[in-house]
Amino acid sequence: MRLGNYIALTFLFGSLISTAGIAFDTKKENAGQVVDSGSFGVFVNGRRIATETFSVQKGASGSVATSEFKTEEGMDKAMQSSELQLTASGDLRKYEWKELSPGKAQAVVLPNDNLLVERSTENPQAKQEEHPFLLPVSTNILDDYFFIHREILAWKYLATGCKQQNGGLSCPKEQEAKFGALNPHARASMLVTMTFAGREKILVRGVERELNRFSLKGEIGDWSLWLDDQFKLVRIVVKGDNTEIVRD
Fold it and tell me: Quick one: which of 226, 210, 140 has its CA closest to 177?
């Protein structure tokens, strides 16, 4: 797939769903084209501790990325789900996450005038808390547990000036892009930077592959991301954390 076409798909997010206690338009659009889907294994010190299963779909008025994070057997049981919706221009339309186990906490982030507002509850019967952030709708969601958000951010970085050239990926030399981001779990906003570090041969599940490496830095730490030639996230390493995320 051509880089320009692939990046364009990432800005086509849509469909609204309802959140307990908050009124929204619950009308669903028809299912869209799947841009990416699959799962990531989460490893700490070489041991698989969790799996994220995800899907990114293009709709008529935007796109939606859904994800489910679930710990492996033998670990403390935990499960969460999320849905990230962007407009056709890449702005945030809505973000929702739900804790499915062991608790029932949930939160939704929505634009409200010149703010982003997060409304959260510890359980569906509890009173909602409201947390306003003085952030624009162009703010990126980088939530805990949902690594597909890092892939979407990488696509946005690619759209800032990268292109396919001579069969490979070409980005302006030492191009560094800054992005505003929000972590709804931590209720924290931040500024992150991403750079393209070039092509690199690495072992992925025991097989040598040549991939495109990107560096993501900020209050979230120092992350290395590797994307394949179809611009799909293959591997993440969190520096100093003994944590690795690998596409199944």
Answer: 140
